[in-house]
């Protein structure tokens, strides 16, 4: 057996030799070598000599590399005090192409710094070294560097180092592997404390990169760094946010020796996404007073480079795309900074108009085999974001817009990776019910926060669930083969033990729309994705295998004190349905205990509600006999302005053909009234058909 102490000494010696070669080579690059000491005619990029460890300012919280492309990367570090942070780097295979950069830091950024490396070789593994020296009073003079001046006692203890892989170029056929997870340290009354084995397990897998997918801190949970509340003064909030990031890299000794985050960040690069707990639980963009301080700390403590017009770490734009060879493009989105509050608005946004249009255009323009969308919260699993059936109306209209765009532009091989919900769930979605999946989604996490049982995926998107498990810490992996023919999704527990794996072929995801003359829900095999909507919220209806007209049907029982509730159609009915103008909507209804019709005001939604393009249209059955009874009653509603559809959003009381067509062309809501009693009621629905 090899002596562990000897192995450690050997590794340290190798690091020292590699560092000497890298910084020595960097100093001999013509552009970096000056004429003579004291010649300050122009500022040089050559490193200062290190004569002893006493001259080095400590790097306090490790190092990280992020937002890697084929030719660039950003190195992050934090010095103990005002200093100049230096970075030397070179390909692991050869120090001949070494480089060197530096940046000055001070208290304005909490002594954190971002160093952008350029002109890197694609698909190449690099080693880098980071150290800090006292800040100089003026511009550094040009001079050649004498490597012999670098003393052994200054290395490697005072010099941090790590490795990263640059992305293959967009034309290179290379396999790509990455891991993702999030949700670490500090949630609830009894938070899970470090170390977090999942971070170590991810590092041991040696992925090409790590996607740190939201809730990288829990600012609003009690940890030694403090706790953010809605009453935290702004001048105190920034320091708490900063301390949260520090403790995630170096926890107090009384809690744990390590979190394992530093070790992971030293072994690979990272793309970091934020979610709500980087600021405060479920915050909504511009209306949150604490957001600027939370955003500033997030920007300071992660190696971000997502705005070509800004220096690394200076931009508040957190969304961008990163290409990894011919077969993979990673799209990072920000679902917090621009979102509307989740209240009952006619239209709400998670992304904001500018980001939404960027995402659509970027997806359409990508020629990568696989488009990997990194959404902090799932598209197809209920949360406080895209789909919120238990909390008001959610942001389903924007989700529908994105799904419809994927269909109409035929954006093939879309895979969503997500976090936030503290479950591991893998599934695929066929929202238009044409037998072809529009996208696959995999959800992973948490790494450190508590986890509950897994729930069902969002029914209106017509999901097929491959795997669902909760109540454990976990992470996910993605591997794309060199040929690009398949993508493999894996879920692992925090110790690296496989929980689930599946391979998806490129031919398994076909987003093209299939023309149809009718859309039907017979409910003979399930709820077909329908929801029950009431009081601004929605939930799953009850499913009955028998007793329909005929076969299965759905229903609900509610006592809402006279507030009308509705059956809400799934995504297969929505989108561009202008071709159905002049057609019909038919359905069967039954009441368990009928009495007089409950006369809901039209603003409550009438008997049938259609919404889209900022317009709401309602239709009411005026005939007293057109009230659901204890037996099944059939209804047929003409989809035309030649019958009285009430326009709730216009000064004109009745819908015009133009406005009706506009609604159908952008149909975001179709609801059928379920309640026809004041007080206790039970209603049942069957045989819904939208036909031309």
From TrEMBL:
Membrane-traversing stretches: none
Cited SUPFAM superfamilies: Metallo-dependent phosphatases
SMART domains hit by this protein: LamB
Gene3D superfamilies named in the record: PhoD-like phosphatase, Purple acid phosphatase-like, N-terminal
Location of the Laminin IV type A domain: 525-692
Domain of life: Archaea
Keywords, sorted A to Z: Disulfide bond, Glycoprotein, Repeat, Signal
PANTHER family, alphabetized: PHOD-LIKE PHOSPHATASE METALLOPHOSPHATASE DOMAIN-CONTAINING PROTEIN, PHOSPHATASE, PUTATIVE (AFU_ORTHOLOGUE AFUA_6G08710)-RELATED
Protein's name according to its UniProt entry: Alkaline phosphatase
Native species: Natrialba aegyptia DSM 13077
Lineage, top ranks: Archaea, Methanobacteriati, Methanobacteriota, Stenosarchaea group, Halobacteria
């Amino acid at each position: 057996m090899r002596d562990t102490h000897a192995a450690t000494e050997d590794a340290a010696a190798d690091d020292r030799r590699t560092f000497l070669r890298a910084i020595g080579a960097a100093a001999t690059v013509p552009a970096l070598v000056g004429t003579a000491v004291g010649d300050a005619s122009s500022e040089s990029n050559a490193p200062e000599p290190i004569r002893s460890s006493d001259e080095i300012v400590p790097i306090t919280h490790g190092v990280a590399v992020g937002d890697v492309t084929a030719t660039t990367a950003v190195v992050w570090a934090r010095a103990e005090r005002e200093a100049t942070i230096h970075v030397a780097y070179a390909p692991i295979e050869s120090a001949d192409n070494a480089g060197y950069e530096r940046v000055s830091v001070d208290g304005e950024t909490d002594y954190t710094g971002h160093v952008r490396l350029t002109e890197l070789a694609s698909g190449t593994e690099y080693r880098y070294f980071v150290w800090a020296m006292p800040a100089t009073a003026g511009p550094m003079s040009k001079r050649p560097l004498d490597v012999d001046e670098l003393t052994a006692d200054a290395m490697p203890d005072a010099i941090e180092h790590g490795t990263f892989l640059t992305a293959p170029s967009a034309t290179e056929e290379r396999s790509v592997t990455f891991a993702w997870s999030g949700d670490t340290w500090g949630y609830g009354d009894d938070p899970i404390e470090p170390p977090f084995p999942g971070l170590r397990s991810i590092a041991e897998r040696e992925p090409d990169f790590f996607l740190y997918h939201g809730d990288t801190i829990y600012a609003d949970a009690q940890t030694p760094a403090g706790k953010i509340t809605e009453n935290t003064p702004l001048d105190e909030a920034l320091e708490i946010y900063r301390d949260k990031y520090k403790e995630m890299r170096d926890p107090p000794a009384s809690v744990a020796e390590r979190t394992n985050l530093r070790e992971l960040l030293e072994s690979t690069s990272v793309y970091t996404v934020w979610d709500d707990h980087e600021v405060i639980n479920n915050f909504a963009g511009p209306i949150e007073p604490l957001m600027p301080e939370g955003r500033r700390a997030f920007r300071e403590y992660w190696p971000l480079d997502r705005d070509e017009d800004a220096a690394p770490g200076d931009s508040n734009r957190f969304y961008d795309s990163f290409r990894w060879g011919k077969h993979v493009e990673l799209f990072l989105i920000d679902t917090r900074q621009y979102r509307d509050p989740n209240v009952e608005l006619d239209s709400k946004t998670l992304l904001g108009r500018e980001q939404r249009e960027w995402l659509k255009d970027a997806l359409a323009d990508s020629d990568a085999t696989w488009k990997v969308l990194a959404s902090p919260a799932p598209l197809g699993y209920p949360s406080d974001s895209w789909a919120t059936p238990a909390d008001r109306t959610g942001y389903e209209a924007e989700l529908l817009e994105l799904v419809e765009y994927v269909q109409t532009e035929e954006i093939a091989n879309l895979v969503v990776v997500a976090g936030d919900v503290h479950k591991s769930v893998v599934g695929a979605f066929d929202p238009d019910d044409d037998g072809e999946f529009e996208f696959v989604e995999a959800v992973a996490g948490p790494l450190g926060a508590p986890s509950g049982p897994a729930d069902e995926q969002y029914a209106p998107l017509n999901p097929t669930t491959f795997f669902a498990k909760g109540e454990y810490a976990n992470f996910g992996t993605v591997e794309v083969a060199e040929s690009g023919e398949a993508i493999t999704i894996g879920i692992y527990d925090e110790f690296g033990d496989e929980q689930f794996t599946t391979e998806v072929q490129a031919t398994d995801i076909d987003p093209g729309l299939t023309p149809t003359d009718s859309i039907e829900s017979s409910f003979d095999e399930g709820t077909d994705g329908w929801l029950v909507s009431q009081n601004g919220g929605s939930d799953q209806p009850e499913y009955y295998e028998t007793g329909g007209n005929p076969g299965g049907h759905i229903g609900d029982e509610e006592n809402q004190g006279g507030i009308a509730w509705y059956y809400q159609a799934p995504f297969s009915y929505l989108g561009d349905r202008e071709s159905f103008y002049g057609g019909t909507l038919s359905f069967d209804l039954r009441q368990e205990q009928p009495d007089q019709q409950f006369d809901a005001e039209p603003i409550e939604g009438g008997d049938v509600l259609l919404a889209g393009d900022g317009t709401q249209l309602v239709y009411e059955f005026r005939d007293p006999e057109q009230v659901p009874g204890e037996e099944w009653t059939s209804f047929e509603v003409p989809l035309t302005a030649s019958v009285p559809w009430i326009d709730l959003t216009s000064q004109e009381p009745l819908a015009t053909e133009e406005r009706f067509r506009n609604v159908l062309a952008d149909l975001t809501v179709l609801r059928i009234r379920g309640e026809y009693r004041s007080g206790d009621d039970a209603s049942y629905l069957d045989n819904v058909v939208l036909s031309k």
